[in-house]
Amino acid sequence: MMKLVAFKHGFIAVDEQNECIVLRRTGHAEHIEISFPFFDDMHVIRLTACEALNLRNALNELAAPHLLQVTGE
User: Fold this and answer.
1) With the C-alpha atoms ordered 36, 37, 39, 41, is the resulting torsion angle positive or negative?
2) What is the spatial order of strands in the sheet that 2-7 belongs to?
3) pLDDT value, residue 33
4) How many CB atoms lie within 10 A of CB 32?
5) For the CA atoms of the chain, what is the radius of gyration?
6) Is residue 5 exposed (0-12), middle (13-18) or buried (19+ Cβ within 10 Å)?
7) Count of structural domains, the chain
8) What is the extent of the structural domain holding 60?
9) What is the pTM of this model?
10) DSSP SS3 for 54
11) How far apart are CA 39 and CA 53, in angstroms?
12) For residues 10 and 32, what is the distance between their CA atoms, to the nearest angstrom?
């Protein structure tokens, strides 16, 4: 299974193009892989299921409902 998360305002402010993060789990793998496909020198980040859930929880806390109202998303 693979998921793609696109975003604006990437790592390099050279152009206005969108970038993305690829999340991948293969078969019954115990790890979730995170990669930045447009950067050759970036390594794949491999998270255990627990680490992936901790990341999800941290993002949920940071993206609180009041933030969504401020940015208009």
Assistant:
1) positive
2) 2-7, 19-24, 31-35, 45-48
3) 92
4) 21
5) 14
6) exposed
7) 1
8) 2-71
9) 0.67
10) helix
11) 25
12) 22
**What is the CB neighbour count within 10 angstroms for residue 64?**
10
Beta bridge partners of 56: none
Tell me, what's the pLDDT at 60? 86
Name residue 31's amino acid. H
Q: What is the pLDDT along the chain (73 residues), one digit of tens a residue?
A: 889 888 877 666 555 567 888 999 877 778 899 988 777 777 889 999 899 999 999 988 888 776 666 555 5
Q: How far is 8 from 21, CA to CA, in rounded Å? A: 11
Chain CA centroid to CA 25, Å: 13
Per-residue HEC secondary structure of 36-65 comes to CCCCCCCCCEEEEHHHHHHHHHHHHHHCCH
The two beta strands, 45-48 and 19-24, are unpaired
Rounded CA gap, 10 and 37, in Å? 12
